[in-house]
Amino acid sequence: METPFPPFEPNGPDDSARGPRLREIPLRLVFPNLITILAICAGLTGIRLAFENRYELAVSMVLVAAFLDGIDGRVARLMKATSKFGAQMDSLADIVNFGVAPALVVYVFALDQARSLGWIAALIYAIAAGLRLARFNVMAERENKASWQSEYFVGVPAPAGAMLVLLPVYLGFLGLATDRTFAYVSSIYTVVIAFLLISRLPVWSGKSEGNRLRRDLVLPMMLGVVLYVALLMSYTWEVMVFTVAAYLISLPFGARKWRRKYGTLTIEEPGVGDDDIGRHI
Fold this sequence. Notes:
Elements: H1 27-51, H2 55-78, H3 84-109, H4 116-140, E1 152-154, H5 158-165, H6 167-173, H7 180-198, E2 202-204, H8 218-234, H9 236-262, H10 277-280
Antiparallel strand pairs: 1-2
């Protein structure tokens, strides 16, 4: 039963107990979060399409999700709309689009013929993607960042992992028989990609400010990008297989460059204690 009079407050009304007042939010702060939500929708739709045996659309939706998830942060920085809420949304979207969605799509397409081994491989990849993203978030939040962090990734980044793990699907689209042998080989390949995600392999990022391009190579590079996009639109799965192969071949060269500069095969950070699990892994 409601009381006819408000409760007595000797010190005046306690505004701290109330929720925040509603206020208008600039549209530029909402737009990056909308991109993130669209990315999650695309990733989840890709899972649904895979279970409906519409595999080409499923892979396309996963790749679209990865693209949207890759640009939302850049859009937020460009529009000066970064926020803690957006960062948390982006982290949740990453695990869906780069971990769960690719794992389920490749499982439904190929790994299910390997029965439990195929499911275990899909689980390993999804968990590895989650660990990779957690490590990235921990390193990104450090106040004192190492100089090499602007030039190298620690292990294969999750967006690239999503592209790599779908290789069995690309090959299936090109007519390769997806029998039980193919499923077992694909399971092994999935576990290898999972290992690359959580490894401490130095992977060149190309984000260093010191990387410059000669003036006479700018136009040829732009024409090369246009040619790549045109081929991707016309010969999608052939180009994706080529892209995956080129990326995997480039990994030893990045590690070799790291070794020449720092003298080690993997990225090792000094002063890491066993009690600091975020830094230890």
